[in-house]
């Protein structure tokens, strides 16, 4: 697929740069930590780059975390600063995406940024972050400390643009009590087994209202991704060509439709709507014992403990299919990533901090503090990492190296809007999966 270098959001931001004189004005709200001081409407990075006491060179680091997580990043910064005297990193929490883009395109750019790998890829496609190959080769830096999928998640056309800090994937939770009541002692290994269990476990009242949901239709993103990946379906191929009509997608959607016909689309939509409203609260449907299966992330056990949920749960790999058991464990895969900006005024210092933060020492501070999975393979066996509830099972999934990564395309957001609209027509019964995906292929033909 031919790739445009500038996505629509970046194009709008470039217009903003021209209109604001390279980022001199502040039109958005930015959250900050005590690591930097701002005036009303002034530039955070200007304050952050004030010379420190002594001879240490300043390195500015912008991250998009707030609250308690921002404190974790400040703790990591303090540890790095204490480990050496050549550089002094000054951190700043910046959550305004356009503000970051404007700054990165000017002489007010931070030296180092932290963002999700998909965002970093967009920055790389627009020339806003520095390729790291020269740094890696100059020091013979060992990229093999990371999982292959974590490194590949930060490449564009073969070039590395960031180091992975942590990892993100989804797997299957199951309610052991509900599973036993349905007559099973082990979670499903295939989608066919999952469907059979889901039908037996789903409970409705006399009016047809769903009280317990067996099939993992919620959260929405997992029904659009992991349920489809388990059938071998992909919305795009490895070269970012769009493939909305492949057989795996159709097989997954037809199973989804079959379940909806069994229990009623309106009743299921009502349950899912309530579940979405209460997601990650004390009234979360899985926390309350009203979901048999839940496709979600590694943070769920900690949330359940915080809300005093008494559900007896287990964690297992996303099912494959009877025909393709090798699809078991396939899930989306992302990283939080650390990149050096192209306009950095201290690239040597930026690299020194980047490699430290993404080392076992720095990454472990972030992994334990934020509850994110490690991208460094050495930390897979770290006792403190494994002590975090749910991490052992999710690390087993990471070891499978079956992550599906996002495409390198400028029109990704537009494509996903079309995908969601097509899925709505399927779920509402307006179109068959085959017709909806055929239409989606036609609608998305011009996207890049």
From TrEMBL:
Q: Could you tell me the keywords of this UniProt record?
A: Signal, Transport
Q: Which stretches of sequence are listed as region Disordered?
A: 23-53
Q: Tell me a Gene Ontology molecular-function term this record carries.
A: maltose binding
Claim: Signal is one of the keywords in the record: yes
- What does the entry list under GO cellular component? ATP-binding cassette (ABC) transporter complex, substrate-binding subunit-containing
What the entry lists under InterPro entries is as follows:
SBP
Q: Which Pfam families match?
A: SBP_bac_1
> This protein's superkingdom?
Bacteria
Where does the record locate the signal sequence feature?
Answer: 1-18
One Gene Ontology term of the biological-process aspect is: maltose transport
Regions of compositional bias (Polar residues) in chain numbering: 23-46
Q: Has the keyword Repeat been applied to this entry?
A: no
Q: Which family does it belong to?
A: Belongs to the bacterial solute-binding protein 1 family.
What protein name does the entry list?
ABC transporter substrate-binding protein
């Amino acid at each position: 697929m031919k790739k445009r270098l500038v996505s629509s959001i970046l194009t709008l931001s470039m217009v903003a740069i021209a209109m604001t004189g390279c980022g001199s004005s502040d039109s958005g709200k930015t959250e900050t930590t005590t690591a930097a001081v701002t005036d009303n409407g002034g530039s955070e990075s200007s304050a952050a780059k004030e010379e420190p006491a002594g001879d240490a060179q300043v390195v500015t680091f912008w991250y998009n975390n707030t609250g308690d997580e921002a404190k974790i990043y400040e703790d990591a910064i303090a540890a790095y600063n204490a480990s050496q005297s050549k550089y002094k990193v000054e951190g700043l929490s910046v959550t305004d995406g356009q503000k970051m883009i404007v700054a990165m395109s000017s002489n007010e750019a931070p030296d180092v940024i932290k963002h999700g790998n998909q965002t970093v890829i967009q920055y790389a496609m627009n020339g806003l972050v520095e390729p790291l190959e020269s740094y890696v080769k100059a020091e013979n830096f060992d990229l093999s400390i990371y999982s292959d999928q974590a490194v590949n998640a930060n490449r564009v056309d073969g070039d590395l643009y960031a180091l992975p800090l942590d990892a993100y994937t989804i797997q299957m939770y199951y309610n052991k009590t509900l599973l036993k009541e349905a007559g099973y002692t082990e979670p499903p290994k295939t989608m066919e087994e999952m469907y059979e269990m889901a039908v037996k476990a789903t409970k409705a009242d006399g009016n047809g209202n769903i009280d317990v949901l067996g099939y993992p239709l919620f959260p929405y993103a997992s029904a659009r991704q992991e349920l489809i990946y388990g059938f071998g379906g992909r919305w795009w191929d490895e070269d970012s060509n769009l493939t909305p009509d492949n057989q795996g997608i159709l097989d997954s959607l037809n199973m989804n439709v079959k379940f909806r016909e069994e229990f009623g689309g309106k009743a299921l939509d009502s349950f899912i709507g309530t579940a979405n409203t209460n997601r990650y609260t004390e009234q979360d449907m899985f926390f309350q014992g009203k979901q048999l299966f839940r496709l979600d992330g590694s943070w769920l056990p900690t949330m359940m403990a915080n809300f005093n949920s008494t559900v007896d749960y287990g964690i297992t790999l996303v099912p494959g299919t009877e025909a393709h058991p090798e699809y078991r464990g396939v899930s989306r895969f992302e990283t939080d990533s650390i990149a050096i900006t192209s306009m950095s005024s201290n690239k040597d210092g930026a690299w020194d901090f980047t490699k430290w933060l993404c080392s076992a020492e720095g990454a472990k501070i972030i992994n334990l503090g934020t509850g994110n999975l490690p991208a460094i393979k050495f930390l897979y066996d770290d006792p403190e990492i494994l002590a975090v509830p749910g991490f052992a099972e999710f690390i087993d999934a990471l070891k499978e190296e079956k992550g599906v990564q996002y495409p390198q395309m400028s029109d990704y957001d537009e494509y996903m809007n079309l995908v969601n609209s097509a899925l709505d027509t399927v779920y509402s019964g307006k179109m068959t999966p085959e017709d909806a995906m055929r239409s989606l292929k036609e609608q998305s033909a011009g996207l890049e």
